[in-house]
Amino acid sequence: MTDTERFDEALDRDWVRYASQLTRRISELAGSDAFELHAETASGPAACVHVHASAGGHATVEVTGSEPVTRPVSEADMLARHIVSVLRGRGKVPHPAFLQAHPPSALGDLRERVSDALAHALGRPVPVDADGDFVVVLDSQVVFVVIDDDGSIRLWAPLLHAIPENDTPGATPAAGRTHALAELTELNRTWPHIKVVLVEDRLVATVDLLGDPFVPRHLSELLQRLKGFLTVVDERFARRFDGVRYGSDRDRDVDLPEGSVLDEPN
């Protein structure tokens, strides 16, 4: 795959994710609810989409330069695809990052508050990956901060991978995933505020946080707890679970399926 193809694929994925967010917001319209999308232009933000609730459980979408479209809110996905199609085509909006919702959605507002809280806690802006998750690096260990569709917040850190199945040839004695599950019981008792789980051949640490109400101090405290836990994830820890640490010397010798190493567990 060429760099151009990768870029196009990432761009399409971002628009699909944006359409999903629009679908959710349109499906929740009721009464006199309405919102606008403003696009960044050379002369500043300009309203380009107006969406409002209509009678009988319908929603109407008015995109600049197009005829209004009214559909039941149950068809919010179709309305969202219509908006994206017009904005990408006739509207020539290059990326969802050039759009702002007014008033902001509750989820969008939460993302901004989480971003500000992370920047304050770490002393620097925090980048976002292709999935829209915040990427935090704590002492060379990657931690993802995920805002779920229901407004909850999750911190998750990939710890180990390549944990063998129980009958894998060459696996060390008293190893394998059954052994790893048994070790997890003790580990989770030792660190009660952090949940460590086995996902296929990967060991992942997760921490949940309420998004409503969102308290920045709680996010900062959880990051510190997770940072303290990550100090024990060393080669001895890897041997305990017969796994491989990300970025270790052994990691370079493991044959991994492309794109699977740091995928968020479902």
From TrEMBL:
InterPro entries, per the entry: TY-Chap_M
Domain TY-Chap central: 109-246
Protein name in UniProt: TY-Chap central domain-containing protein
Organism annotation: Rhodococcus rhodochrous J45
